[in-house]
Amino acid sequence: MEKFTVHAGRAVPLCRSNVDTDQIIPAEYLKRVTRTGFDDALFKAWREDPEFVLNDKRYDGATILVAGPDFGTGSSREHAVWALQDYGFRAVISPRFADIFRGNATKGGLLPVQLEAAEVVELQRICTTDPTAELVVDLVEREVRAPGLTASFEIDDYTRWRLMEGLDDIGLTLTHEADISTFEASRPTWLPATA
Amino acid sequence: MGRTLAEKVWDAHLVRSTDNEPDLLYIDLHLVHEVTSPQAFDGLRAAGRKVRRPDLTIATEDHNVPTTAGPITDIVSRTQVEALRTNCEEFGVRLHPMGDASQGIVHVIGPQLGLTQPGMTVVCGDSHTSTHGAFGALAFGIGTSEVEHVLATQSLPLQRPKTMAIEVEGALPPGVTAKDLILGIITQIGTGGGQGYVIEYRGEAIRALSMEGRMTVCNMSIEAGARAGMIAPDETTFAYLENRPHAPKGADWVEAVQYWRSLATDDDASFDKVVTVDATALSPWVTWGTNPGQGAPLSAAVPQPRDGADERALEYMNLTAGTPLRDIAVDTVFVGSCTNGRLEDLRAVADVLRGRQVADSVRVLIVPGSVEVKEQAEAEGLDEVFTAAGAEWRGAGCSMCLAMNPDKLAPGERSASTSNRNFEGRQGPGGRTHLVSPAVAAATAVTGRLTAPADL
Ligand code: SF4
């Protein structure tokens, strides 16, 4: 997974709340068995509207999405994260994320940045007025910087470290293989087995 | 200081817990389906890893399967199902494929087989894994990276969640169901209300629910933003489990029940948050918008929009504030899904449809949650009630809960659906969904407008 330390880029304002996973990527696209190539599916229904912000050429090449509260509600589909990444996003900023989406995002190296609602509105105003405005998402300092605004965000030390090092969770867990075996030996024998 | 149900289950599964790191939690049961697993198995293959505990893993085909006889004609769907078959074969995972007697929606078959038991940790690459919390299990949905993680290690690194009690006070009035209760709860606390919490549903009205009703409630915890919902196991739970294929037997049963009884939240335990819900104030509930928190009593009118999100929802739903909800006509009625596709739900529908006809203007799909539910319903003659009334009786699967198989809404079509999500396009691009209970779905089928059985 690609390391995330400090990312500078332009941002797209998505001024909607409750952007659910069915909007981020409709179920039809979940039939694919690959992990990449979902950029065409991102916000599929909304992109049919010429007025939709991602159809605004001025935001081509933007790498940060600034969305309303409750981003990523709904299903556990990690395809939502892959689609955002395939499209080119490195970070999503919102006042509140759905838990599963947040977890999925950090697994794949897409940074979910939770800011105060007023800060998000201000960022949306900044990138609406000036689509060329550059934002800096700084995981090292845990802050977002934009022209005229600096906002700090919280992220737990472990997740931050993992993202900064680009580390894969499975490899880390397997270093505790002995603990897993010890635990397994202590499980009650009446617990169900599928085989 | 006492502990809550969720805390007891969490603590009993700690493989490892150290400061400044997530806890490593052992997973007792991993449910797998075709949609969220192919990339996980690919990941294992690429890293040369095996499935650590195939004996704690089980797979089924549900999201893509057609509910009419015959093979999958959509090539992409078929490829995904075939990928699951190949992966299960290669990695030694038990699979219930289409046509198998135990095939069905992943959250229907786990409990039905007795694999879901109190005090267990259960995960699945599917957000409605919260369903299994009805048994007092800690059950939650995970993404594909986590599916791969559990396949490889049978454990997951997780931050300890906060706990929330939803105290349901009083009894549900007659004619008000588990679905109305959970829709009412989500209307009250909102789609983000449970975010970061494991919810424990408590109180008289919860205790009075059957296991099916409890599963309906826990199923929709995710719609309130909570990753998991739980209900303490009690006699209702034990009676449901006893003699199921994978339930403990003999002396093991006695030992297990004793352990399960110890899981209930201690009297001196405290929750991070407590929400009180008045069950006596509830009535048949429907959603009018495009998220499950946009709901109201069926007797009410489409509300005035409070904000831009409400305005957008009304526009998408093609509704005007002030219209009585009972005046809304639907094209399709869907009964099924992991929320309401169990035998008790089908009985409730049959009770309304018996001796009645569905309206000419309405297509009615009744889809059992599993092959076993289908067989039980047919043994009781429910299928005859459905077909005599003019409804379609289908095979088991996710069906019109989501637009991944041939059962879909056409653009602009409106449905009354017993499923769990009314998101834009959830049941088909441009489709409009009203979430309802099975009883309301059945009455709506009869009149063609949103209707409760008491209105007939
Ligand atoms: S029935 Fe619906 S919610 Fe349940 S698993 Fe299938 S698609 Fe998901």
Descriptive terms for the model:
heterodimer, A: 195 residues, alpha/beta, seven-stranded mixed sheet, 7 strands, B: 456 residues, five-stranded parallel sheet, 16 helices, 17% strand, binds iron/sulfur cluster
User: What portion of residues of chain A is helical?
Assistant: 25-40%
Strand-residue fraction of chain B? 15-25%
N- to C-terminal distance of chain A: 34 Å
Overall spatial form of chain A: globular
How far do the termini of chain B sit from each other?
52 Å
Gyration radius from CA atoms of chain A, angstroms: 19 Å
Number of helices of chain B: 16
- Major sheet of chain A: 7 strands, mixed
The proportion of residues in beta strands of chain A is 15-25%
Q: Which term fits the overall shape of chain B?
A: globular
Flag low-confidence runs of chain B.
none
Characterise the protein shown here.
The two termini of chain A are 34 Å apart. Chain A is built from eight helices and seven strands. Chain A has helices spanning 21-24, 44-47, 79-87, 99-108, 117-129, 157-165, 169-174, 177-185, and strands spanning 6-14, 64-67, 91-94, 111-114, 134-138, 143-146, 149-152. Chain A has 195 residues and is of the alpha/beta class. In chain A, a hairpin with a 2-residue loop joins strand 6 (143-146) and strand 7 (149-152). The mean pLDDT of chain A is 95. In chain A, strands 4-3-2-1-5-6-7 form a seven-stranded mixed beta sheet. Chain B is an alpha/beta fold and 456 residues long. Chain B is 32% helix and 17% strand. Chain B is built from 16 helices and 19 strands. Chain B has helices spanning 5-11, 38-47, 75-91, 106-112, 144-153, 178-189, 204-207, 211-219, 235-241, 251-261, 308-317, 337-340, 343-353, 371-379, 382-389, 438-447; strands spanning 14-16, 23-26, 29-33, 57-60, 94-96, 121-124, 138-141, 155-158, 162-169, 197-202, 228-230, 273-278, 285-287, 295-297, 332-335, 363-366, 392-393, 414-417, 432-435. In chain B, the strands form five sheets. Chain B has a five-stranded parallel beta sheet, sandwiched between helices. A five-stranded parallel beta sheet of chain B has the order 17-16-15-18-19, with helices on one face. A four-stranded parallel beta sheet of chain B has the order 11-10-9-12. In chain B, a hairpin with a 6-residue loop joins strand 1 (14-16) and strand 2 (23-26). In chain B, helix 6 (178-189) runs parallel beside helix 8. The longest helix of chain B has 17 residues, at 75-91. In chain B, 61% of the residues are buried. Classes of the chains: A alpha/beta (195), B alpha/beta (456). Chains A and B meet through helix 4, helix 7 and helix 8 of A and strand 1, helix 2, helix 3, helix 5 and helix 10 of B. Bound molecules: iron/sulfur cluster. Residues 62-63, 105-107, 126, 128, 337-338, 398, 401-402, 419-420 of chain B line the site of iron/sulfur cluster. The site of iron/sulfur cluster has 14 residues of chain B, from helix 4 and helix 12.
